Amino acid sequence: MHSTARGPSLGGCRFWAYADARAAMRDALRLSEGMTWKSAVAGLPLGGGKGVIMSHPGEALSAARRRDALLDFGDTVALLGGSYVTAEDVGTSTADMTTIAERTPHVAGLAAADGGSGDPSPFTALGVLCSIEAALEQHTGSPRLGGRSVALIGLGHVGLPLARALTAAGAEVLVADIDPARQADAAALGARWVRAEEAMTAQVDVLCPCALGGILDHESVPALQAPIVAGAANNQLASAEVAGLLTARGVLWAPDFVANAGGIINIAAEFEPQGYDPDRAAARVREIGTTMRMILADAAAAGVTPLAAAMALARRRVAEGARATSS
């Protein structure tokens, strides 16, 4: 748990293979902080937390052993008494949340049949789509996707619906994924399949990272050809100073924790007094585009990076939450 200044710390449970426990711990801490800023920028009454279940590289868990791990995780969440609320993330599903819910009520994003909002991925994709449009408008003066080109890395739960939306809007889409089976999805979309290295350096209007983080660093940024980077991946910057490197190269970066907040906005709608409504949730997710426009405009006006402008907004809202809690 990184912060509960604005409310309970909400963040998904990541089930992933790590080289050692230190790497898993670093990931949990880094991701939990990101959730604090994500919820704050989105204006949600929530703090930031994250859960990690660590497996080992090459380890194949049986169904029984995986279930045991999920139940143990549920016991841990229960011990926190509601200060942390879990949900699905990389490596987990709505079915996994149902298993965890056997041990704790502090679970969001359950399947619709179980009273939850279901898979949040399409809402995350919607928020990223709105962010791409906002970045295009800031860079070119028009949010129009028709005739634009996008290199999308990661055709998973978020990347696939996002790719569908991009192609439906008339964009030319290049796709890369570590799973060669995803080529069939790319073909069905009419997207061009490329290697990840090709996607990173493609001469396109937008680079859209939708896989794991750390993709932007001192080696990759100088090779970028896209003038805009806007995607769903968490923690895209290998370090905060890379934000300055992007700006110096004239690359407009849409802060990831703003762009990919659609999933948590959708999940937060489960807590509303009037109950969950997908149309109302989608309308709130589309407000990400307005927030992104404000952040990018503020950054340009102040001569700072989009990261600095987004963090200023996030810290201001967390401070406001802390003052409200203490008063």
From TrEMBL:
Molecular function terms from GO: L-leucine dehydrogenase activity; nucleotide binding; valine dehydrogenase (NAD+) activity
SUPFAM superfamilies the record matches: Aminoacid dehydrogenase-like, N-terminal domain, NAD(P)-binding Rossmann-fold domains
Superkingdom of origin organism: Bacteria
GO biological process, one term: amino acid metabolic process
Keywords: NAD, Nucleotide-binding, Oxidoreductase
Alphabetized InterPro entries for the sequence: Aminoacid_DH-like_N_sf, Glu/Leu/Phe/Val/Trp_DH, Glu/Leu/Phe/Val/Trp_DH_C, Glu/Leu/Phe/Val/Trp_DH_dimer, Glu/Phe/Leu/Val/Trp_DH_bac/arc, NAD(P)-bd_dom_sf
Residue ranges of every copy of the Glutamate/phenylalanine/leucine/valine/L-tryptophan dehydrogenase C-terminal domain listed in the record: 118-326
Active site per UniProt: K50 (proton donor/acceptor)
EC primary class: oxidoreductase
SMART domains membership: ELFV_dehydrog
Enzyme Commission number(s): 1.4.1.23, 1.4.1.9
Residues engaged in binding NAD(+): G154, L155, G156, H157, V158, G159
Family the UniProt entry places it in: Belongs to the Glu/Leu/Phe/Val dehydrogenases family.
Protein name: Branched-chain amino acid dehydrogenase [deaminating](EC)
